[in-house]
TrEMBL record, chain A:
Belongs to the eIF-3 subunit B family. This is Eukaryotic translation initiation factor 3 subunit B. Component of the eukaryotic translation initiation factor 3 (eIF-3) complex, which is involved in protein synthesis and, together with other initiation factors, stimulates binding of mRNA and methionyl-tRNAi to the 40S ribosome. RNA-binding component of the eukaryotic translation initiation factor 3 (eIF-3) complex, which is involved in protein synthesis of a specialized repertoire of mRNAs and, together with other initiation factors, stimulates binding of mRNA and methionyl-tRNAi to the 40S ribosome. The eIF-3 complex specifically targets and initiates translation of a subset of mRNAs involved in cell proliferation. PROSITE patterns: RRM. It comes from Eruca vesicaria subsp. sativa (Garden rocket).
From TrEMBL, chain B:
It comes from Eruca vesicaria subsp. sativa (Garden rocket). This is Eukaryotic translation initiation factor 3 subunit I. InterPro entries: eIF3i (IPR027525), WD40/YVTN_repeat-like_dom_sf (IPR015943), WD40_PAC1 (IPR020472), WD40_repeat_CS (IPR019775), WD40_repeat_dom_sf (IPR036322), WD40_rpt (IPR001680). GO terms for molecular function: translation initiation factor activity. Keywords: Cytoplasm, Initiation factor, Protein biosynthesis, Repeat, WD repeat.
Length: 714, 330
């Protein structure tokens, strides 16, 4: 491998490796040959502290100076005092005596068994009053050197020159307002611009073996986190991706950011040596910017998971769920019968205790507020009803709760702006043999949080997928029987009936099993992934009309870009063939395809929330024509330029080809005689040329062969 | 473009060959009988009976009088095209994989597979004018040219001076047809990464195209004299067959996923499409679907107005181009 690298590098630089005499090379002096290692850790590691061996000795000052007579008495007193803090070593107390006067100097050394004891004793007895005039002054022996060297005059500490950090938001200022995406294929991880105008991607940064498992953007897109054996690292910056910080966590497996990207949670689980034991889990919470570990949690996987076998697989991720909003104030963990809510100010539990909820199995934060929704299933064989409750944090007040009967399962879906909560409830039929589904819809922002019950037109329909319109008031449901279920759209708000949920429409018999709303709402992709082979239907919910129906064969993943302008569909390496991704416009027009073998991951770089108020956004949408004119002109320019480039390229290709053809033709001519000889003199080449010249002409002509007259008798 | 479906073979197709006039189409398949078809309406004209194994390859003489076929029964046979009679049988000790008549039809190059203790070999045979005088001796034998690796195709270079071969080791080689000396071979870096499955010469022997199973599955266009790589066409699936249009600057590439994996997925996953590319710009123009197994053989009619494809599914599909085809602009 290494020699291969060297060979390729040499070839790149145009060096003939075989001509190089290794002995003639003089390397620059120094251990690193004058080349700074790019692993700054090598240089910035703390200098190792060498243990002087005196760490467990303290010096007690301001003792009374005593003569020989009283020496022993003082010694007993001191021993008495210091034995409280630890074990003084044998002959560990030493009080020197001035040989001239026979008096003590007024200080002594005490050696403890351990440095901790010494430290403790120092802290506890510094300032100890033996009597009025003798107040102890205690120091660690090790500190003496340092304290003696303190300069007499105070020196102002040097202020380090301010080093401006990189602009981590630079990608947002792209002139063409493009979005970035990261892909992983084979050993390579690449960050690319999506350039729909050029119908291609433009590389930003590429690295082989950038990560050892996967990569993830932070929720606002500022950082890209990579996972390594030693821990996680975040990357970002203005132009290229530089490493901004590292977080040490051996064998980290999973990471999660807080929504305001202030904190990074890393997870590591270790398979137990005894398969019956639960695996060991270690979770650390880091401050993203300083890299400081704020808190770590250790325990067996059981403590971090609920329901299911848990044990071997480890905890379900994310273990810690962050409260909504961007202030990253609270995070919560669900465990058996409790919900533990931590606050980030102290990284301790709120009010120092968890919330006790018997048998709780699921919890969700509101995406915007510090409200937890939780679900408790039925207990006691149906005697105690199931319950869905909303709990306000940090007050832990239950805002609303609803009891539900004969429930088999519940799923909670928050709308992205925290206005609504939909709870899909699967209930048993009377016979308890089958289940049917309905929805409980909570209107969080209205007074008293009214709850509405929604049942599908056909109660027995199975619900295959559910999705809220982001920032909107609508939701879509796929229901019915495979392989051709129906898709229905509902709205929580209509002009006619203000506060009632109403159905907008149903699309019958669609090949879909997943819903992907555009991040700006209005558009949705009804996708048939997996066994539907990647059917895609781009649907406009405002107009309730299909914009396009297409297919990305075998597509496994679909992801909208953060602006809702483009969609990427990908076939990842779960399939062998046709790995790669396709980018579509929001209305289902195919823009371009990129094929990559061993394609693992595609993630768009998220954008932070817009600074525009909803009113202004609406205003822009209204006057879109005025704003878009500028961009249309740009589009026009680009397309002209593109074709110009293209033409240039094509002309070059054509010319090159012509040169080949000319060469071949002349050679062909030269060899004509020889070829004729090989063919026994058959003049064949001309014949071929003649073929082309030959034209089949159809000539019609009439010829009078014979004329006879016959008398027709009447 | 409505294809003519030619059902005559019972096993997967292996090779297709038009005669020079473009009125006859010869097909070889894993069943033992090469078949002759009318190239315009796809009617079957006759068969050549005598082989006792899969027939891998064939070539027809310039005057359409002789046919040579190479078969897994360890023979290559000469046939009278008109009567269907076997004129001569060259016996080998391993299957004959590829056959090619030289310019003037006086020589034929035959490759044989590695088999038992025999390595692969390239044989040059002299073809007698009168079949009575035909002898089985080789003019030249290149033993072990690629070791134990199979040679999938060997053809004559310009003026019969060279022989170009390609096979499982993904390297193309040019041999001196007189001495058997290796003149040139392709660089691993530049060329194919996996087995070369097919090779098709241009009409004037100036360049040729090869198809390969390598991951990027490309067909490469090579200069026949210098072995320079000129173009690469990436297809996304393994390539089994390639052909050059004699009329327009088009190449056609066929293939699809491995035959052993076909039944495991939807037929659309296989991409059993004959894909057309612009020869110069290397851009895909379009595709012709229809086969429900990988495409194993492709051939253009010498007039460039029709082409036929043979599939693992046992069908030959004969396509006469619509007039639109001749006006494709990209």
């Amino acid at each position: 491998m290494a020699t291969l690298d060297i060979d390729s590098r040499a070839a790149q630089l145009g060096i003939d490796w075989s001509q190089v005499h290794l002995d003639s090379i003089h390397l620059p002096p120094g251990e690193n040959f004058g080349i700074e290692s790019d692993d700054e850790g090598v240089y910035h590691d703390d200098q190792l502290e060498f243990d002087t061996g005196f760490g467990n000795i303290i010096v007690v000052d301001n003792l009374p100076t005593v003569a020989k007579v009283k020496f022993e008495k003082l010694e007993t007193v001191l021993k008495k005092i210091y034995n409280q803090f630890g074990v003084i070593k044998e002959n560990g107390l030493c009080m020197p005596v001035d040989p001239n006067t026979g008096l003590t100097f007024g200080y002594c050394f005490i050696e403890f068994n351990t440095p901790q004891e010494a430290q403790n004793a120092k802290e506890k007895t510094h300032g100890y009053k033996l009597d009025k005039s003798h107040i102890f002054s205690v120091n660690m022996f090790d500190d003496f050197d340092r304290l003696m060297n303190v300069k007499e005059e105070w020196e102002a500490p040097q202020t380090k020159p301010y080093v401006p950090g990189e602009n981590l938001q630079k990608w947002l200022t792209d002139e063409k307002a493009r979005d970035q995406l990261v892909i992983r294929s084979g050993p390579d991880t690449e960050v690319l611009w999506n350039d729909p105008r050029q119908k291609n991607t433009e590389p930003v940064h590429k690295r082989s073996y950038w990560t050892e498992s996967y990569v993830q953007w932070s929720p606002l897109g500022t950082y890209l986190v990579t996972l390594h054996k030693q821990g996680a690292a975040v990357w970002g910056g203005a132009d290229t991706f530089t490493r901004l910080m590292r977080y040490q966590h051996n064998m980290v497996k999973l990471v999660d950011f807080s929504p305001g990207e202030k904190y990074l949670v890393t997870y590591h689980s270790q398979e137990p040596s005894n398969p019956r034991d639960a695996s060991k889990v270690e979770i650390k919470v880091f401050d993203v910017r300083t890299g400081r570990m704020m808190r770590d949690f250790k325990g067996s996987a059981d403590e971090f998971s609920i329901g299911g076998p848990g044990g071997v697989a480890g905890a379900s991720w994310p273990v810690f769920r962050w409260a909504g909003g961007k202030d990253d104030k609270y995070f919560a963990k669900l465990s058996k019968n409790t919900i533990s809510v931590y606050e980030t100010e102290t990284f301790g539990l709120i009010d120092k205790k968890s919330i006790k909820v018997d048998n709780v199995v699921d919890m969700c934060w509101s995406p915007t507020d510090s409200i937890i929704s939780l679900f408790v299933p039925e207990q006691g064989g149906g005697n105690q009803p199931a319950k869905v409750a909303l709990v306000q944090i940090p007050s832990k007040v239950e805002l609303r709760q609803k009891n539900l009967f004969s429930v088999s399962d519940c799923k909670m879906y928050w709308q992205s702006s925290g206005e609504y909560l939909a709870v899909k409830v699967d209930r048993y039929t009377k016979t308890k043999k089958s289940t049917y589904s309905g929805f409980e819809l909570f209107r969080i922002k209205e007074r008293d949080i009214p709850i509405e019950v929604l049942e599908l037109d056909n109660k027995n329909d199975k619900i295959i997928a559910f999705a809220w319109e982001p920032k909107g008031h609508r939701f879509a449901v796929i229901h019915g029987d495979q392989p051709r279920p129906d898709v229905s759209f509902y709205t929580m708000k209509t002009t006619q009936h203000g506060g009632r949920v109403t159905k907008l429409g149903t699309l019958k018999a669609k090949q879909a099993n997943a819903l992907f709303w555009s991040p700006t709402g209005k558009y949705i992709i009804l996708a048939g992934l997996k066994n539907f082979n990647g059917q895609l239907e781009f649907f406009n919910v405002d107009e309730l009309e299909t914009m396009a129906t297409t297919e990305h064969f075998m597509a496994t993943d679909i992801e909208w870009d953060p602006t809702g302008r483009y969609v990427a569909t990908a076939v990842t390496s779960v399939h062998e063939m046709e790995n790669g991704f396709t980018v579509w416009s929001f209305n289902g027009k195919l823009l371009y395809r990129v094929l990559k073998d061993h394609f693992f991951q595609l993630t768009w770089r998220p954008r932070p929330a817009s600074f525009l108020s909803p009113e202004r956004e609406e205003n822009i949408a209204k006057n879109l024509k005025r704003y878009s004119r500028k961009y249309e002109a740009e589009d026009q320019d680009v397309s002209l330029q593109l074709s110009e480039q293209d033409r240039e390229k094509r002309r070059a290709l054509k010319e090159e080809w012509e040169r080949w053809v000319m060469q071949w033709k002349s050679l062909y001519e030269e060899e004509k005689l020889e070829r004729q000889n090989l063919r026994d003199g058959e003049i064949s080449d001309e014949e071929e040329d003649d073929d082309e010249a030959k034209e089949v002409k159809e000539v019609e002509f009439e010829d009078v062969i014979d004329v006879t007259e016959e008398v027709v008798e009447e | 473009m409505r294809p003519i479906l030619m059902k005559g073979h019972e096993r997967p197709l292996t090779f297709l060959r038009y005669n020079r006039d473009g009125d006859m189409l010869f097909s070889c398949a894993k069943d033992h009988t090469p078949t002759l078809w009318y190239a315009d309406n796809g009617e079957r004209h006759g068969t050549y009976r005598g082989h006792n194994g899969a027939v891998w390859c064939c070539d027809v003489s310039r005057d359409s009088s002789r046919l040579i076929t190479g078969s897994a029964d360890q023979t290559a046979k000469l046939w009278d095209v008109k009567t269907g009679q076997q004129l001569f049988s060259f016996k080998f000790s391993s299957p004959a994989r590829s056959v090619d008549f030289s310019v003037g039809d006086k020589l034929a190059v035959i490759t044989t597979d590695p088999f038992m203790e025999h390595t692969s070999a390239i044989h040059v045979k002299r073809i007698a004018d009168d079949p009575q005088d035909q002898v089985g001796d080789s003019v030249l034998v290149l033993e072990n040219p690629e070791g134990r690796k199979r040679i999938n195709r060997a053809v004559w270079g310009p003026l019969n001076q060279t022989i170009v071969s390609g096979g499982e080791d993904a390297v193309l080689r040019i041999w001196d047809a007189e001495t058997g000396k290796l003149l040139k071979e392709t660089d691993k870096e530049v060329g194919h990464k996996q087995t070369i499955t097919s090779l098709c010469k241009s009409a004037d022997d100036s360049h040729f195209i090869t198809g390969s199973l390598d991951k990027t599955a490309k067909a490469c266009l090579w200069d026949m004299r210098t072995l320079t790589l000129i173009k690469t066409y990436t297809s996304g699936v393994p390539v089994n067959a390639v052909s050059l249009s004699p009329l327009l600057d088009h190449v056609v590439i066929g293939g699809g996923q491995d035959a052993s994996a076909v039944t495991t997925t939807d037929h659309r996953a296989g991409k059993f499409e004959a894909k057309f590319y612009d020869k110069i710009l290397q851009e895909e123009i379009g595709g012709v679907k229809g086969h429900f197994g990988p495409i194993n053989a492709l051939a253009f009619n010498p007039d460039g107005r029709s082409f036929s494809s043979g599939g693992e599914d046992g069908y030959v599909r004969l396509h006469h181009f619509d007039s639109d085809y001749f006006n494709i602009k990209i």
